[in-house]
Amino acid sequence: MSLYQVYAQYPITIVSANGMQLVDDKGDIYLDYYGGHAVISVGHGHPHYTQALHDQLDRIAFYSNVIENPLQVELDQRINAHLEEPYQLFMCSTGAEANENAMKLASFKTQRKKILAFKNSFHGRTSAAVAVTDSPKIWAPLNTGHEVDFVPFEDLETCEQLLSSRAYAAVIIETVQGVGGLDQPSVEFAKGLQQLCEAHGSMLIADEVQSGFGRTGAFFSYQRFGLSPDIISMAKGMGNGFPVAGIMVKQQYQAVQGELGTTFGGNFLACRAALAVIDIIENENLIAHAKRLEQVFRKAVSEASLPATIKGAGLMIGLDFKAPTAELRKKLLFEDHLFVGSSSNPNVVRILPALTIDEEAIIHLVSCIKKHCA
Ligand SMILES: Cc1ncc(COP(=O)(O)O)c(C=O)c1O
């Protein structure tokens, strides 16, 4: 018997973790600058987070959405407190599922089928989510029936040409691309896109699965662009490792019973995990901290004169070396015991630590990178 092995894995077995430290089965310590794809938002084993989950587990872990769950209402309010205008929360369990629900909802509300997405996008691996992911190698024949167009960032003219057909249910955008390699649109392009959506009746979906919950130095990344999306999808950092996800739907859209649904989404433990994450983000001022540590990173990289350009924002940041980085990442992992991330752009190293990371740890990472670049 064996696993159905679809992952390229490192021969490392992690058995415990605390803060940004990971400990393997031999007792060796690794530092986590990656958070398992940007999931660990408030650090491994944060005492407030673990206590909140323990307490909830002692009361009740799960019941389905056949009953009211006040924790969902509380979470809706706590997320809304970070937004400029009111949204309604619908919960599910993964990022792909959040995007799947966002696009399905846009299709219901507009009664249209097409989706406009962007070059180098990544939105997940399920049906419509993978179809709007610009990576044909992960499309199965089953996924190719969706009507999707991919446009590069900044090409507002093509966006207008397509959207003016009034056939597009939605435009889905990562305002800082994750897997794609940390590219961002200009503020002018993002705002122009929103105007086109409004003019031609398409819904704007902000994919905040990776960039949400404070990671870019704003609660959601789209806020840095002054956007007002119709739907926001979120997951990853929302639960600090507990599988919790959701969409925020602008107040003007009225829910219709049965149009979306889920068994696991919004269960007690999931809500408690997300509420604990928000408590920690607020109590420890982690959004401002992420913004400040971006500047620490920028300064350290510039002082180290690394042969790379900085990409991204807040603590969703990275280095583009204009040459492949696989060897560098291997050295960081096996020689220095530092986990960093890759990207579909082989030249980009992604750095996605917990938002609780300190200045010293940022400087340590940059000095290790410098050592290997010498
Ligand atoms: C921007 C973005 N959207 C969606 C997803 C899919 O999330 P999940 O793996 O939880 O389905 C990812 C995962 O990396 C992502 O980065």
The helix count comes to: 11
Which residues form runs of ≥5 with pLDDT under 50?
Answer: none
Shape: globular
What is the SS-derived class?
alpha/beta
Numbering strands along the chain, what is their spatial order in the largest sheet?
4-10-9-8-7-5-6
How far the N terminus sits from the C terminus, by CA atoms, comes to 45 Å
Computed Rg: 20 Å
Which architecture of the largest domain would the CATH scheme give at its second level? 3-Layer(aba) Sandwich
Q: How many domains make up the coordinates?
A: 2
CATH class of the largest domain: Alpha Beta
Helix percentage range: 25-40%
* Quaternary structure: single chain
| Mean pLDDT value | 97
Secondary-structure element series = EEEHHHEHEHEHEHEEEHHEEHEEH
Question: What is the total tally of β strands?
Answer: 14
CATH superfamily of the largest domain: Type I PLP-dependent aspartate aminotransferase-like (Major domain)
Largest beta-sheet details: 7 strands, mixed
Bound molecules: pyridoxal-5'-phosphate
CATH level 3 topology of the largest domain: Aspartate Aminotransferase, domain 2
Task: Please give a structural write-up.
There is one protein chain. By secondary structure, the protein is α/β, with parallel strands linked by helices. Helix content is 34%, strand content 17%. The protein has 2 domains: 14-46 and 285-373, Aspartate Aminotransferase, domain 1 (Alpha-Beta Complex); 48-283, Aspartate Aminotransferase, domain 2, CATH 3.40.640. The protein contains 11 helices and 14 strands. A hairpin with a 2-residue loop joins strand 1 and strand 2. It is globular, with a radius of gyration of 20 Å. The model has no long low-confidence stretch (mean pLDDT 97). The structure holds pyridoxal-5'-phosphate.
